[in-house]
Input
Amino acid sequence: MYCPIHLALEETIHHWFLEDNMQLQNIYIGASSSVSIQETFDNPQWLESLKPLTTEPMKVVAPDYKKFLDPTATRRMSKVLKNSLLTARQAMEQQGITELDAVITATAWGCQEDTTKFLDSFESMGEELLSPTSFIQSTHNTIGGLIAMSVKCNGYNNTISHDFMSFETSLLDAVLLMKENKQAMNCYVGGIDELIDFSAGIFTKAQCFNEIYPVAEAATCFIVHNNEAQKKSAKLTNITLTQSLDQTILDLIKQNKPDLILSSSDIPSDLPVFDYRTLCGEFSTAAAFGLYLAAELLTKKAPVAFGISGALKKIAIINVYPEGRCSYLELEGC
Amino acid sequence: MTWITGMGAVSAIGLDVASNYQSLLEGKDGIGYTEYIDTYHKRILPVGEVKLSNEQLIDLLSLDKRDIYSRTELLSIKAASEAYAQACLGEIKDRTRIAFISGTSVGGMDLSERYYKGYELEGKRELVTNFRKHGCYKHTESAAKALNVKGISTTISTACSSAANAIIYGARLIDAGLADIVIAGGVDPLSKFTINGFNSLKILDTEPTRPFDDSRVGLNLAEGAGYIVLESEQSMKQRGIQPLGRLLGYANTCDAYHQTASSPEGKGAVLAMSKALELAGILPSAVDYVNVHGTGTQNNDLSEGTALKTVFDGKVPSFSSTKSYTGHTLGASGGIEAAYSLLAINNGVVYPNLRFKTSIADLGLIPQQQVEYKTVNVVLSNSFGFGGNNTSLVFGR
Output
């Protein structure tokens, strides 16, 4: 038996904004950047040349790191750290900012390469004379700490690791932070998960994910802000978290009538639904890719492949997860 | 600001808040060699271990013996249910208005390291039930389920400031009207992974730690869990429940200096403390006691001490590191020390910083050296972590 949880953020969000001064009425998704299994990084045309999914676990299209990062400074960094740093920098550059007010990182499985490297080192070499590098880089907050260091951000810094809900509750964290601060802020919000060979096998065996899609990975980030005057890709109009695809969500779909729903679940609605996991594969913070795609579709002309005619003005991203969690995110074009 | 109506703690110095308090007053630390971890360092590096095996915890919590639990889950359920009981949360009908926010550094690492090499050997069903328990989030979901709490739940992982940041997240949920009540805090188990990790950084003491002493050489790694119940004023009044105190202010900042070391001037620490006091609307001079982060490492104590002198303009109030009793419980420390802060306020007492002899040469700061009964209206509690994550909480009467 399930008990519906009603965190209708939509109402609350509108309520908050009415209380705030006019300039801070809205929360926006500004620039974004993604390293994913598609050729998303540094490529505005990625939607025109989509890669099909394979049946094997899929790793990201690795950027030319040398082109963007100082090889000496990043020599000991794992792939996930490089991708996170790279996407953060690119999003900031596209937003036209050199400083951040907050760094909020969502990662379900954290820095797995370094974690397993450290586990391996004491399993194979014994417990003496171990090198600390992989331990230092193994904690979930390594990513957020690194980004903060690279841009000298002394502001708010949080890392959320709550399985499938990591990204949604991170986005909520940014919204709550901006509400509390009541001033213009640029928040980095990233959804990051890394796939390593070891865990790819286990994820599959342990049936952690929907087996329709290959297990995958991505580092996707957004500059979330509340400054009307700044670059905006979309307006964040709703975050609703429930325990299932319940009446709350169905009512939202009915009332808000998004032009497109991005979801991998059966949505009982006549509105067009696109399964975005057919582009990004499956991983715990895939919702960040869903949001990225939504922002892209609102700012770019949707390719024919999506079967959408006419301009998109409003997109909902709906995720139904195991263990009784469901999320509804909504973006409107600016 | 949010009220606090319950607290729960389990650490090396006690299995509940009352026994933790007793140990604090008696000056009894919980540092010793591990009973439960099979490590090369088990007779070399003393730790702050909770004095119950997993089997005993499962018995105590009346959990299904056929299931596999991470120690993280067990410690979390133990402390959270104590906080839950004190706040009488069983009486609340709308379970969706109670949120559960927990912090942890390593989540179910005790299971990861146990099963890491065995995955190829185990059967599929066994893997399914086990593997998800390795993640940070699993203990949060388990504790929420055990307590039949159905509001929003999430897990913060900012190393040693995890629990303190969970408390901030909880306070914001209440302020935004997304929950009436939040159980917030954190947990970390001892593990071979963290013992070896901190040992590889050469910051573990082979003796009981000496925070803020000139001769300090490192910390004692520890485990535990600590949670407080945050509640809106309206809900508290409606239920007619007595508060234990208030969360007056908080701040989360980043040192942005080094992945593991603090900046010499304690930039992030200064910002965290002063912003938390600013949000609380309190002058530094109104702080009666500071429960410092005080890990006992060369770097932390010097940096935190320098920051204290800056924030309090040289007039540092009574302060102590209760990690001299418990060891460093990593992601749990902010939750356990929140409970200690509330005990200080409610009982009008400040605790000694054990084993202090000589002040750090460059600082000249002398921590609290004995139990002292005095009026405690405001406590500042610091939790600083790897990655430069600095968080300060301000508790009041």
